[in-house]
Amino acid sequence: MRKLSLLLGLVLTLLMGGSLFIGTLPLDLLLQNASVLWELRFPRMLIAVSMGVSLGLTGAVLQGFLRNPLAEPGIMGISSAAALGAVMVIALGLGGSHLFAVPLAGMMGVVGVTFFLYKLMQKHPNPLTLILTGLALNSLLGALMTLILTLSHNPYASLEIIFWLLGSFAHHSLGQVAFVIPLSVAGWIILWRLRFTLETLSLGEEMAIVLGASPKKMYGFLILGMALSLGPLVSLVGVVGFIGLLVPHMLRPFVDHKPADLLLPSALGGGIMALAADMVVRLLSNHIDLKVGVLTSLMGTPFFLYLLLKQPRSSHATF
């Protein structure tokens, strides 16, 4: 696991440096305008890496807790809650009123759903309840977003909502980045501390309880960690899918299917995938206005289906 993490960390570091110089602007002009690097490219790089790390880490943790390699971060409704809060602000025409209006609205949505999930899991601490509740929340929140789009009489606001939902790392200031990343880092720390619980859960939930694990505390920290990791970033950049599902699935064989050892490689791999996708979007920006959320889905869906069909039937149920 250590060698894999070092390799992924090296690749991510090289991509972070290279991404500052990737784009349609010629290199000589870029070097003459340092403000482009620090005011546009640097925040974009930070937000892409942070989003990728959050998606990769939450995907690995959620798959470990649910003991299902097909689980993904969006299943709990947290991303949809952040999206709904942001969509409401944009629809009301308040998105441009303040630098932090959209992120704050998204985080308010996350707080509400997090509180609801926490209370529910205190009464029914089991994976099935979490999955079914997440599916219901995603359906409800998605319907509410559709209703807002339908009732919106401002075509410009509707168009802005649609483009925002597609997900993009562009056009975010250093102030916005400095606002959301510390919250996400706090979520990463909480999820990282759950790695010991993942070890006991790999023996089965009953054995984990015998060894002293508390289901109520486990799910409480899981919900809080995921909310902090994903909520602020989704409320800023929109919905970016598939990374949290695909990256842990790709890296799991390299850590001998050990859930705790998968966390760090998945976080680094998520950062690599998100940043690489954003670099591709930049290179194509002269030809097509492609959003990174669309690209990750277009690339991830067929590749994931290939991995799924390639594996033996018996391995589908194995973590």
Per-chain topology:
Elements (H helix, E strand, L loop, with lengths): L1 H18 L7 H6 L1 H33 L11 H14 L9 H23 L3 H25 L3 H11 L8 H19 L2 H7 L3 H6 L4 H23 L5 H9 L11 H21 L8 H19 L9
Helix pairs in contact: 1-13, 3-8, 3-11, 3-12, 3-13, 4-5, 4-6, 4-7, 4-11, 5-11, 8-11, 12-13, 12-14
The number of distinct helices, counting runs of at least 4 residues, comes to 14
Radius of gyration: 19 Å
Overall CATH class of the domain at 76-238 and 276-311: Mainly Alpha
The CATH architecture of the domain at 76-238 and 276-311 comes to Orthogonal Bundle
Briefly note the CATH topology name of the domain at 76-238 and 276-311.
Answer: ABC transporter involved in vitamin B12 uptake, BtuC
Helical proportion, percent range: over 70%
Question: Can you characterise this structure?
Answer:
The chain has 319 residues and is an all-alpha fold. The chain has 14 helices and no strands.
List descriptors.
319 residues; ABC transporter involved in vitamin B12 uptake, BtuC; globular; mainly alpha
Task: Characterize this entry briefly.
This protein is an all-alpha fold. The protein has helices at 2-19, 27-32, 34-66, 78-91, 101-123, 127-151, 155-165, 174-192, 195-201, 205-210, 215-237, 243-251, 263-283, 292-310.
